[in-house]
Structure formats: structure tokens, C-alpha cells
Amino acid sequence: MKYQVATSTKEKVIRENDFIVSKTDLKGRITYGNRIFVEYSGYELGELIGAQHNIIRHPDMPRAVFKLLWDTIEKGKEISAYVKNMAKDGSFYWVFANVTPDFDENGKICGYYSVRRKPRPEAVATVSGLYRAMLDAEQKAGARDAIAASTGILTDLLAKNGVSYDQLIFSL
């Protein structure tokens, strides 16, 4: 279930002590969302459960960011990222997200957890410019080559600064 919503310029700013928590199955379908997730997303819990987590994906987010996220967590590693989400009413909210695999008693990945908190405004300002450049590269490259083009922007930035992705994210 994906709603078609027009984006809005209205921003919801996460409160300092809020933590947005959700859990998905291996396919990215939401299996749990805390009350803060429900509040900021604007969806009822019943609308969220069973929906793809990308129900809150904002069109300003480059596809390459989610490719990196999925590639990382499917390998059993955690990842942190700045993400612009879109609420049901079209408003948006920025988060600093940590996504980690959930393992069963046999050590097999059985789902994923995401805990999001309020990002630093300076980090959002920096990452917004990067994401805009990545998204521009995706749009110029066309659907087939979008992710590669966008990934190239990020890879070039990391190489230019001599840092890893994690070092960049945690330095913001």
C-alpha cells in the first residue's frame, strides 16, 4: 500500500528526546512502529503495519542512499544515514537513522530495526547539498544508470576527502 501524496514545504522538526523506532521483515515490510513513528509519519499504525517502509520515502532522497543501506544491512552490518522522510500529508522530517539487522537464535538475519533521532541542523544542511547533487546525477543519467551515477558522486566525495562513508556521516 503506497499513497500518492504531493510533497509540501512544511517541515516537522523532531523533538530533542524523541526516538522513532520501526522494525521490518526481510522484504522491508513494516512489522512494528512506535508511537513516535506513527506521530511523525502521520499514518495510523494499521496503515503502517504490512506496508513497505518506503511508504515514507521522500522524493528528494537519492536512490543510491537506499542501495547503500540495503547492501550494508543485508551483509549483516549496521549503517547510519541522514534521511529525509515524507509524512502522509506531504510534509517532511529529517532524521539521523541507524539501521541494523535483527538476528534469530541461529544467527540468521530475520528482519531489520531502525532507530531515528533528531539530526544536527548543520549536518542536514551539508547532506542536503550532497543529496541534491546525487539526485541531479540520477535524473541526468536516467533510470537504468541512476544509481551508478549517484553512487559516483558519493564515492568521489569520499575519495576527495580521504574518508570512509562512516567517517563522513559521523563527522557531520
What does this structure look like?
The chain is an alpha+beta fold and 172 residues long. The protein has a 5-stranded antiparallel β-sheet. The chain has a single domain (19-171), classed as 2-Layer Sandwich (Beta-Lactamase), CATH 3.30.450.20. The mean pLDDT is 95. The longest helix has 21 residues, at 121-141. Helix 3 (63-74) packs across helix 5 (146-161) and helix 4 (121-141) packs across helix 5 (146-161). The protein is globular and about 40 Å long. It contains 6 helices and 5 strands.
**Integer count of domains:** 1
Low-confidence stretches: none
Radius of gyration: 16 Å
Number of helices: 6
Q: Could you state the order of secondary-structure elements as H and E? A: EEHHHEEEHHH
Distance between termini? 34 Å
Approximately how much helix is present in the residues? 25-40%
| CATH homologous superfamily grouping | PAS domain
CATH class: Alpha Beta
Examine the coordinates and then state which fold CATH places here, giving the name of the CATH topology. Answer: Beta-Lactamase
Number-wise, the strands total 5
Largest sheet: 5 strands, antiparallel
Strand order of the largest sheet: 2-1-5-4-3
